[in-house]
Amino acid sequence: MRWLCVVGALLWASQIWAEVPQMGVAVGTVTVEGKQWQRISLRPDIPIGPFGVALDIELFVDHEGNFSKRGWDFSTGQAARETIFRKIYYIRYGRPKDPVFMKVGALDNVTLGYGLIVDGYTNALEYPSVKRIGFQGDVKGRIHFQWVVNDIDDAFTGGPWFGVRAALPVFGKLRVGGTLAMDVNQYAGLKDRDGDDVPDAIDPFPDDGTAWMNTDADSDFPDMTPDYRVEDGDTVWVDTLDIDGDNIYDAFQSGYRKRKGREPFKKSENTDRIVVVGVDMGYPLLEGPVGLELYGQAAKFLTGESKGGWGLAAPGLKLTAGSLAARLEYRNFKGRFRPEYFNDLYDLERARVVGDSVVTKEADLDTISLQGVFGRAVLRVGDLVSVRATYQYLTGERRDQRFYVDGRALELLLRQVPRLEELSAYYHKDHIDTKEAGFFDPTPNTIYGYKIGFQVGQGVQLIWHAHYEYTPTEDPKKPKLHKYVTVETEVRF
Asked: Which of 81, 364, 441, 463 has its CA 20 to 30 A from that of 339?
């Protein structure tokens, strides 16, 4: 009720100071914890002068038909923060091409400078199952400032990652920039909704803050009575069995065995910071309807296992011509380095559970020397389609490739199919090594999906979004496929 009053006040204020707000209501299914839940969302989008506010006020009905407290939980500090943050889709000042643009909430396609360190980052890849409240800024002037923070809530739970860049003219039209990106703790991205310090992915009781391990040898897993819990401040083991005497509990947890006395992974006991710095410079060769810029950029890892790994991208050419924007550059990398380290997949790769271990993205980097080319093009064909494609081909001690393609239909094409309101698709694959697998074979670095929207009534749209991703298994050639489907009915008035 409190939140409905807030929304009502905002709507009333917007009638006085702003353009007419838009209101949307979405009803549909969403994948939560591997199960299909129903989600009802009220989405007011309120412009107020140079500001814009988009809220997302939601109710969840779980797979058993019960209203869930998800998004309305104030039991712990972390839960209360998440409850408040989940109500905000974004708050913005200005628009991306304005002299001053700032945005808090859902971020999409954030790039700092020429993108060697931070490129195409989004914190909304898992929306609406996972909501992150990021902070982005772009202030253009004689000195050009840019910054990004992935999730404000991470600052309360172990550390966010952030990036900042500043660029200024030093000689005529020659501009020089510097970038700093830091992940304060890569493990902070592991979700822990019950606040017991054990990530949900390895916690058999993710909604019970006093229990985090199942060790008995009965047949039900997880059983209704946790075996490893806190009572009066002490850790108590209950019903632990070792029938064959091999010092291994006979029960399985998440497909692997737990050894006696072995504690689960605790977020507060594990920190792993990574710092990347970079420099760049650019000089315009042509200005006007057709623009051509010569540039170069370099970056280096300063901390962690990848300390000393570096990358150089020069020379590079950036072209803008009408509806075409493209760039091409030569690249040279040495040591434990990966370009566009903070990219659209970063929240998935930052830290993940593999078997009974937690592995960071940095730990997957190889010590290797590679050289090759990188290209990207964004093309809009009238009001028909918009396509973005990225390709990288590196050789050296091995071949490494990357391929991204995104496309969406525009208004003129959509009108050719009755009631079609939206049509888009994407395919992203990193770290392609054709000696290990085929170019399009699935790997943990592959994601793809599509979105289709149809008008089913006046102001009513049915949206189907299918998203696919993979996680590692013990067999590197057989990653596990995860499919997430969201079906929503959206009403705008």
From this structure: 441
Residue type, 424: S
Among 377, 373, 170, 372, residue whose Cα is nearest residue 283: 170
Domain that holds residue 38: 1-96
Residue 298 · residue 291 · CB < 8 Å: no
Do 10 and 116 lie in one domain? The reply is: no
Residue 371's identity, in one-letter code, is Q
Which residues are 272's β-sheet partners? none
| DSSP letter for each residue of 222-234 | S-SS-SEEEETTE
Distance of CA 202 to the CA centre of its chain: 20
283 plus 372 within the same structural domain: yes
Q: How much is the pLDDT for 299?
A: 97
- Same domain assignment for residues 371 and 457: yes
Q: How many CB atoms lie within 10 A of CB 486?
A: 20
DSSP 249: E
Q: Environment class of residue 437 by beta-carbon count within 10 Å: exposed (0-12), middle (13-18) or buried (19+)?
A: middle
- Quickly list DSSP for 38-89: EEEEEEEEEEETTEEEEE-EEEEE-TTSPBP-TT---SSHHHHHHHHHTTEE
- Residue 196 within any structural domain of the chain: no
Residue 197 covered by a domain = no
Q: Which residue has the tokens 């710092």?
A: 275
At residue 415, what is the residue type? Answer: R
pLDDT value of position 391: 95
Residue 32 to residue 274: CA distance in whole angstroms: 30
Dihedral (Cα; 100, 104, 108, 114), 10-degree rounding: 40
Type of residue numbered 385: V
429 exposed, middle or buried (CB, 10 Å; 0-12, 13-18, 19+)? buried
Residue 362 belongs to domain with CATH number: 2.40.160
Q: Which residue type does 224 have? A: M
User: In a 3-state reduction of DSSP, which class is residue 2?
Assistant: helix
- Domain edge (last residue) among 73, 96, 119: 96
Residues 244 and 105 placed together within one structural domain of the fold: no
Which of 96, 111, 140 represents a domain boundary (last residue)?
Answer: 96
Q: Considering the chain, what is the average pLDDT of its residues?
A: 80
Verdict on whether the full-model pTM lies above 0.85: no
- Which residues are paired to 471 by β-bridges? 480
| Residue 368 sits in the same domain as residue 323 | yes
Phi-psi region of 17 (alpha: psi -120 to 50; beta: other; left: phi over 0): alpha
- Report yes or no: 55 and 87 within 8 Å, Cβ to Cβ: yes
Query: Is 159 found in the same domain as 233?
Result: no
CA–CA separation, 232 and 49 (whole Å): 55
Residues 319, 361, single domain; the answer is: yes
How does residue 491 score in pLDDT terms, banded at 50, 70 and 90?
A: low
What tokens were used for 151?
């999730």
Alpha helices by DSSP H, listed for 289-447, are 346-349, 411-414
**Element containing residue 467 per DSSP (H, E):** strand 460-471
